[in-house]
Amino acid sequence: MLSVGEWHMIRVMRNEGMSISEIARRTGRDRKTVRRALAGASWPADEAKPRVRRRSTLDPFRDYLRARLEKAPLSAVRLMAEINAQGYRGGISILRAFVHEIKDAQRLRAVVRFETIPGQQAQVDWGKVPAGVLADGLGPVYAFVMVLGCSRMRFLCFTRSMDQYTLMRCHVAAFRYFGGYPRELLYDNLKTVILQPRSAEAPAILNPRFAAFAGFYGFGVEACAPYRPQTKGKVERLIGFVKADFLPGRQCVALEELNRQALSWCDEVNARVHGTTGKIPACELATEGLTPLGERQYEICRSTPRLVSRDCLISYQGSRYEVPYRFAGKPVLVKDADDGRLVIYAGDELVLVHQKATRAGQQIRVPGLNDALWQMVLGRRWQVRSAPTQPTRPRLVLVGREIPLVPVERRELSYYEEVAG
Questions:
Q1: Average pLDDT over residues 103-114
Q2: Which of 269, 254, 250, 288 lies closest to 155, judged by CA?
Q3: DSSP class of 86
Q4: Sign of CA dihedral 11, 17, 21, 23
Q5: For 362, phi and psi rounded to 5 degrees?
Q6: Distance between CA atoms of residues 39 and 363, nearest Å
Q7: N or C: which end of the chain has fewer CB within 10 A?
Q8: Mean pLDDT, residues 195-212 taken together
Q9: Which residues pair with 159 in a beta bridge?
Q10: Which residues are CB-contacts of 298 (< 8 A; sequence separation ≥ 6)?
Q11: pLDDT tens digit string along 315-350?
Q12: What end-to-end distance do the CA atoms of the chain give, in Å?
C-alpha cells in the first residue's frame, strides 16, 4: 500500500514529464502500482488499514537515530556502535530495517518546485568533463555553469581548475554575459565558498576570500543543506543538459576554442523556448532587473610565493620569467592578474610586470635587464676589499655575494725546474 507521500511524489514526477518506467525505477515500486496511483484522482485512504506495532528494543533510540540520519546518511553499522554505547542490546537486523525505512522516506520526500522572483537568485555548480573533449591531453577539464532562477538564462564555460581564483573569474564572465548579477547566489557546499556547511544549530561559515568577493559586488551567498542537491535543481539539470546536448561528439584542440563554442551554444539555447517556463530566456532576461557590474572591477589575482633562482628566473605554471639579478636567491610574490599580466613583488616593492606566457615551457626575458651582471661575469670585473673583521684576508664581491680568497704561495720558476729534474 502506498503512503500519501509516495502517492503524491509519483504524481509530481509524472507532472514533470517522467515516464512510468522511470518513476518505478526511482521509487522502487512496480509499474502496475505506479499506474494505479496515476489513475486515481485522490489518495485511496479508505484502503489503508491501521497496523498495530509491537514494542521493540529499538523504540527508546528511534528519535536519536532519526536526528542522526537527518544530518548525514550514516550506515547501520556506524549507528549500531553509537546506540550500543547508550545501552542498546538488540540485534542489527531490526536496526537495518529502520535505517532503510528512514532513508527511503528521505529519498521519496516530496520536493516542491521553488520559483524565485525576477533578479532574486542564480544557481552555480561545477561538472567534470569526460576525457577526450580536448585533444591537447594537458589534464582534466571542468564545466562551470550558472543559471538565473526566474528567466532561466544559462551560462557555460570550461576551465582547467576549480580553485577559488578560477571560480571568481568564471563568476565575472557570467555576470558580463548576463549584463549583471542577482541579489543572491545559491551554491552547494564548495570549500572555495563554504568553509563549514550550515546545520540545525548554526548557519554556514563562508570562505573569507570569497566573502570579500561577494561583498565587493554586494550579492548574498546561500548554501544548500548537506546531502540535498535537489535544492539547486535548476543548475543540476543544466549540468545534465550540457553533458547530453553540448558535449557528445565534440572535440577541440584548445580550451579557448571550446569556450568560444560554449558561448555560441549558450546564445542558441537561451533563444529557445524553455521546457519548464514555456518562455524564451533571452526575452525574459530584461525582466530580471539585475544589478549592473559598473566600472569598478574586483581585482582577481592568484598570489603565489616563489624563490628567485641563482640565474635570476622564477618558475610559474611551467614557464620561467626573468627578474633583476639583485633579487637572486630571494623570495618574491607572483600575482596572476585578470588581464593576462604577471606582477612580481618583493615585499611592498614592485619588481617587474610580465605578460603571461601563452604556453608552458616558455622563457620570458626582458632585453638588457641583467646586462650589468653578465658584463661583470664575462669581463671578470672583480671588486677586492678587506673584510672589516679580518683585514689580512682579502675577499671578492660578485653580485652582492662575498667569496673569501684562499692565499696561494708564490715560488720562483727555478723551484719547479728542480722538481721536474
A1: 57
A2: 269
A3: T
A4: negative
A5: -80, 155
A6: 72
A7: C
A8: 79
A9: 142
A10: 168, 172, 213, 216, 217
A11: 988 899 999 988 989 999 998 876 778 889 998 888
A12: 117
CA distance 213 to 223: 16
Confidence of residue 83 (pLDDT cuts 50, 70, 90): very high
- Residue 29, burial from CB neighbour count under 10 angstroms (0-12, 13-18, 19+): middle
Which positions ≥6 away from 404 have C-beta within 8 Å?
Answer: 393, 395, 396
pLDDT at 402: 44
Strands of the sheet with 302-307, listed across from one edge: 302-307, 331-336, 341-346, 349-355
Asked if residue 401 has pLDDT above 60, the reply is no
Pick from 161, 118, 407: which is nearest to 286 by CA?
118
Residue 400 has a pLDDT of 42
The pair phi, psi for residue 171, each rounded to 5°, is -60, -50
Residue entry with cell 543559471: 147
User: Could you tell me how far CA 307 lies from the centroid of its own chain?
Assistant: 27
Report the pLDDT value the prediction gives residue 398, as an integer from 0 to 100: 44
In this structure, which amino acid lies at residue 96?
Answer: R
pLDDT in tens, 226-281: 555 555 667 788 888 888 888 888 888 888 899 999 999 999 999 999 888 889 99
Quickly list DSSP for 116-181.
Answer: --TTSEEEEEEEEPPTTSBTT--S--EEEEEEETTT--EEEEEES--SHHHHHHHHHHHHHHHTSB
CATH number of 121-287: 3.30.420.10
Q: What pLDDT does residue 335 have? A: 86
Per domain, the residue ranges of the chain are 4-107, 121-287, 302-371, 382-421
H helix or E strand, kind and range, residue 343: strand 341-346
Could you give the C-alpha distances from 318 to 134, 162, 299, 321, 363, in angstroms and in order? 19, 19, 24, 10, 9
The packing angle between helices 4-15 and 20-27, to 10°, is 140
Q: Which amino acid is at 330?
A: K
Look up residue 102 and give its three cell numbers: 528512514
In whole angstroms, give the CA distance from residue 344 to residue 363.
16
User: Per the structure block, which three cell numbers stand in for 117?
Assistant: 522572483
Average pLDDT of every residue of the chain: 80
